[in-house]
Automatic annotation (TrEMBL):
One of its GO terms (molecular function) is oxidoreductase activity. This is 2,5-diketo-D-gluconic acid reductase. It holds the Pfam family Aldo_ket_red. Residues 1-23 form the signal peptide. Keywords: Signal. InterPro entries: AKR, Aldo/ket_reductase_CS, NADP_OxRdtase_dom. Residues 68-369 form the NADP-dependent oxidoreductase domain.
Amino acid sequence: MIEKFSTTFIFYWLCTFPSLVQTQTNLFRGYAGKVDGKIDDVITTPLKNDMPFPLVGLGVGNLQRNLVENMIHQGLEAQHRIRTIDTAHQSGNEREVARGIVTGVKAFKESENNDGRVQVHVVTKIWYTYLGYERTKIAIDEIIEDLQDAIKDPNVDLKVTILIHWPRCYDTIPWMDCVKEEEQLPARVKEAGPPPHLDRFNAWKMSWMALEDAYLSADYPVVSGIGISNFDRLELSTLLANARVVPHLIQVNTWTLLHNPTELDICHENGILVQVYNVMNGIMGHVLNNPNAHHHLLMVANQLRKLAILNGTVKKDFKVTTAQVVLKFLVQSKVSVIPKTSNRDRLAENSAVALMQIPDMNMEQMEIVRASMAALLDNKDLAEDVRVTVRFHAQKVDVFVYWVSGDEEERQVAFVPAGDTFEEHTFPGHRFKAYNAQDPDQFKSFVIQGQYGDEVDIQVEL
C-alpha cells in the first residue's frame, strides 16, 4: 500500500477536472463553433471560450535561438504532432517560432497529403518590465509583428494566447534585477509608461486591461486567449474580482500542484486551464534521491506498457518511461504540459503521439502516480518500496538459493526443500544461483527478467 501523503496534497481535482464548457460572454472572434484548421489529431480540451486547446506542447523559452526553428519543425511532424508551442517575449525568439511553425506545417502537410490549414497554438508571455497599460500594448504589438510569418502563411491557422509572465519584479528573486532591467529598456518603452517596479501592486492590473482590450478587439484576430503565469492565490482572486475577461489559461510551476491547492480550486471553479512547466526538473530531477517513489513510477510504466502491447496498438518492443507516466497523468487529468528539450529523442518521448499511445490509467494507478509525484516534489521518499516478486520452486531436490552481487560475491538467502517454494522480493536484473543441497557442483544461474511490480516464477530443476 502507498503511504498517505503528509501534506494536504489536493490532486483530486486533477482526476475530476471538468470539461471547461462555460461559454464566456464577449466579442471573441477566433472560434465560432468550428475549427478553422485541423486539430482533431491530438488531445485537446476546450478553453473557457470553447476553443479546443492541445494539451501536449513544446517549451522553447530560453532555448538556444539557433535550435528553436528546427525543434519546432520536428515537433510539428506527423510522428510527433506537437500543436502547442510555449515561449516568452523576453526570450526574443518569436520570429524563430513563427519560421519553425511555417516549415513544420509545410512538412507535415506534404507527408500527410493534407490540403487544409493546420491549427497551431502559441503561448507567449509579457515580461515584467512591460507591465502597465501602454507598455503592454507595445509588447503585444511586438509579439504580433514577430509572429507575422506564421500569421500570414496560408497553411497555418495560428492561435496566440498571451500571458502576463510575472505579476511584478521581485527583489527577493536573485536573478531579477528590477532597476538594471529598467535602465536597459529601449527609450520608447520607458517613455510609454512609468517603471512597473515602482508600482508593484497595480502595474499588472493595467496590463490585464490591455490584454482584455486586445482580446476583445477586432484588431487582433489572432489573439485567441489571454492568461497569467506565476500568479499566487491572492493575485488571482484580485484579478477575477475585477476582470472583464476571465483568464483562459494559467501557467504554474509544478510546486503549485502540491503547495497551492486553494489556487487550483479557484482555477477549477472558474474554468481556467492549468498549464504546468518545470515538470522534468521539479519531479523527475529527484528520482535518484527517492528510489521508492521512482520504483512505483516504474511499476506503473511497466503495467501500461504491457496493456498497450496486449491491446495490439503498439509493437512488442514498445516502452513507457517514468517521465511519460508523469506527463500522461497530467494530460489525462486535463492539465497542459510543455516539456522543454533540445534532444530529438526526448522530443519524441514527450510528444502528443507518444502519450496518445499510452493507455489511460485506472484509479489505482492514478493514486500511485499521485503519491509518487508528491514524494518526488517534496524530496521525501515513500515509506514502502515495490520490487519484483520472485518465487523459486524446488522441483525434485533440496536447494540452496544464493543472491549474487555485482562483484560476484554469493550470499545465501534460503534453503528450499524439494517440493517447496521460496518467495523473494528483489530488483530487475538481479542475479541468483540455486545449488543442489546434496551436490554443490550442480547449480543453475538466474537473471531476474521481470520489472517492478511483476511476479516471476522460477522452476528450479537440478
